[in-house]
Amino acid sequence: MSANKPAAGGAVTVNTLRKLRHAGEKFVCLTAYDASFAALLDATGVEVLLVGDSLGMVVQGRETTVPVTMDEMIYHSAAVARGRRRALLMVDMPFMSYATPQQALGNAARLMQEGGAHMVKLEGGAIQVETVRQLTARGIPVCAHLGLQPQSVHRLGGYRVQGRDEQAAQQMLQDAQALQAAGADVLLVESVPVVLAEQITRAVDIPVIGIGAGPACDGQVLVLYDMLGITPGHRPKFARDFMQGQTSVRAAVEAYVQAVKSGAFPAPEHCFE
Ligand code: KIV
């Protein structure tokens, strides 16, 4: 495959996502871990490619995302960066790579300089406010990940829906607003009740991406392998196998893009109450 150059015009930026939100147009995000898929997803109009630390599970076959390292994230991010042309490249900061603001600054810089990231994503609410403030003050775009935070799976005791009781829901709403005030450019909300995701989306003025968070979010994301129906074992309730009824991977991705853009995905069966 020839090395792809970034498209000169039409590249998706944080401003594009803000404009889409304000225009009420849904945007599409998928995880990507290599150059070939990055090129395919980019060509089908996916606006955001997420190099998720889910690669620890779906690429490396590990049980959780906890063992994923900075070097591994950089390796996959650089591969995706070589395949993309237009999509915004968001990259996860792996477990404990942002335990202090100082550590976060050094590691986010590596993801951008060595991995080609345009935006970093980190998990956590109030505890990450100072880190988000310091990253964004230095020009590093940040997506803050709320709701189910897979890096905390051992503390949570499993991959459970978050924010179901009133106190947890109020805390998440406050965290969303505090992260926005600290400069977060995007929020990602995972596995929360539809009503809470809607409240969060209304309570902030920045784009909100949902996964297992219902249709009110500005954008939707799925793990690529869940969307293609190839994740071994249990597929999460919020995912849909878009390969069904399609004859090629490209057609499945196009069906996902179309379903998100039209609001057909997520449907009630993919949502939590
Ligand atoms: O790592 C990942 O793929 C993610 C998504 C589940 C949002 O964070």
Describe this structure in words.
It is a single chain. Helices cover 39% and strands 14% of the residues. It has helices at 14-23, 35-43, 55-58, 70-83, 101-113, 129-137, 153-156, 166-181, 194-203, 224-227, 249-262; strands at residues 27-31, 48-51, 88-92, 119-123, 142-147, 186-190, 208-211, 219-222. It has an eight-stranded parallel beta barrel with strand order 1-2-3-4-5-6-7-8, surrounded by eight helices. α2 crosses α4 and α5 crosses α6 (129-137). The longest helix is centred in the middle third of the chain and has 16 residues, at 166-181. The protein is globular. It binds 3-methyl-2-oxobutanoic acid. Residues 31, 50, 52-54, 92, 188, 190, 211, 221, 223 line the site of 3-methyl-2-oxobutanoic acid.
Category from helices, strands and their pairing: alpha/beta
**CATH superfamily membership, which one?**
Phosphoenolpyruvate-binding domains
Give the low-pLDDT segments: none
The number of distinct helices, counting runs of at least 4 residues, comes to 11
- The tally of domains stands at 1
Using the coordinates above, name the CATH class: Alpha Beta
> Share of helix among residues?
25-40%
Instruction: Give the overall shape.
Output: globular
Q: Please provide the count of β strands.
A: 8
Main sheet specs: 8 strands, parallel, barrel
Share of β-strand residues? 5-15%
Could you tell me the radius of gyration in angstroms? 17 Å
Name of the CATH architecture: Alpha-Beta Barrel
